[in-house]
C-alpha cells in the first residue's frame, strides 16, 4: 500500500507533518518538528499532531517518527519508511518513498499532548525479531 493511498483514506497524513529546516541540518542539530499540521487531501482536510517525544498522531492512529539528514522516517509495519522533505516557512513538502507526487502541509499551531495512558510505538530497530518455536 502506498502512502498516497493511505492519505486518501486519511490514515497516514502524519508523514507530511515531519520536517526540518536546512539551517538546522547544516548545524547538525535536529529541528523542532512539533506542531499541529494540516494537509488538504481528496477526502478533505487532515490534521496531524507531531510531538517532540517522537510520537505523531492523526485520528486514533499513533506512530513513531525520526529525522536523519534530509529524510523523515516513519515506523510502519515494524520497519522504517523514508521520505525526502523540504520546509519553507510554515509549509512542508514531502516526496519520494512510496509517494507518486509530492504532498504539502501547513503548520497551523502547537501540538497537543499524547493522551494519558498511550505510549509511543516501539522503535523497530530495538524490537527483537520473533523466533519460531
Mean pLDDT rating: 77
Helix content: under 10%
Write down the CATH class: Mainly Beta
Based on Cα principal axes, name the global outline. Answer: globular
- Low-pLDDT stretches are 4-27
Q: Which structural class best describes the helix and strand composition? A: mainly beta
β content, as a range? 35-45%
Q: Major sheet: size, sense and barrel closure? A: 8 strands, antiparallel, barrel
CATH topology: Lipocalin
The number of distinct β-strands equals 8
Q: How is the secondary structure organized here?
A:
Elements: H1 3-8, H2 22-26, E1 35-41, E2 44-50, E3 55-58, E4 61-68, E5 71-76, E6 79-88, E7 91-95, E8 103-109
Antiparallel strand pairs: 1-2, 1-8, 2-3, 3-4, 4-5, 5-6, 6-7, 7-8
Keywords:
single chain; 133 residues; mainly beta; Lipocalin; 8-stranded antiparallel barrel; 2 helices; 8 strands; globular
What does this structure look like?
There is one protein chain. The longest helix has 6 residues, at 3-8. Strands 1-2-3-4-5-6-7-8 form an eight-stranded antiparallel beta barrel. The chain has a single domain, classed as Lipocalin (Beta Barrel), CATH 2.40.128. By secondary structure, it is mostly beta strands. It has helices spanning 3-8, 22-26; strands spanning 35-41, 44-50, 55-58, 61-68, 71-76, 79-88, 91-95, 103-109.
